[in-house]
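Hi R.,

Here's the chain you asked about this morning:
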Amino acid sequence: MLDCEWPLLVQELPAEWKEGSRRTRAIVMEDGPLADPEKLLRMLLGRAASDGSLRAVVAHAREVGLCDVSDVALHKREKRCADWLEWLVDGMLAETMAELPSSPMRMRLVDATCASRPGSTMADFRLHVNVELPARRFTRAELTDNHGGESFERIAVEPGELLIGDRIYGTANSIAHVTDAGGLVLVRINASSLPMWGLDGTRLDPLVLARALAPGEMTEILVEVRPRTGEAIMGRLCILALPSEQAAKAEQRVRHTKLRQGKRVGERAIESAHYVLLFTTVPCDIMTTVQVFATYRLRWQVELAFKTLKTVLKFDELPNRLPATGRTWLLAKLLCALLLQRLAERRNAIPPSRVAA
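And the predicted structure, written out as tokens:
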């Protein structure tokens, strides 16, 4: 695919992409096959797209007349290329943001996925992404090590935009980061993860409110969240009691997860599985309770994006244990995904008459 489509792929790269290889010091030499940014990038993307070994990649490059280098030379160069690939990814995402139409309330899905090196029992890398709605395109990506925690605080927030996140983003300080910048949040919470107070100043227990609901019913109440610093944040606690069949499945998942982790399953955790608890700062005149839950369900879009990265592009199947080359591998995979997305969008935009011709 790279051999056939390379001229089209190059057109989708950011301007001055060749110069970027020297700015990021991916290339420092003046002579030699790997001093050519185009040849080097083509080999890096070819390795990521094919999941081929270094020997297979250099053999293919030699066969098609691209260049003649050793696998050792390519491996050494891989260690220097992560910053360049990150620069290319950031440039493509900036162009994507510029192409999106203006909106009175732009929605961004925020999430992260992990990848591990061979033989590792922990998450060695974490990819933090934003997926823009309704375009369903990546608009931000950041690759960190396992110390890069998931929080809205990692994100530059624009006034008026809505950030949608799962339970791990539902903390008072994370929410405050968004509201202080003029943004809105919609997050799922646990029954105990986000302390809330009623308008009368009393501490609220979401499960007490949830117990009054019949299966399938929903309700909401105005609440107050108090971050570590700054003023209290007003929002809406929205509660949905799952239908009996869904509640049973959710309870089973909780029991299975706790058992796998070797932890005791508490009664509160079991009861919490019967409900969906959401906190949002979106005013009720903009989004009803029903619309709040419908909007949160759009998170499956980012889960689908992660599944595509892992099943189609094998994003999480790192070929070696070195952190430097692992970072290069993952960023090359992400760049492949962005290029494929761009090509698909361009081809889908071709008028039917041209396709028929």
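Residues 165-287 form one domain.

Let me know if you need anything else.
M.
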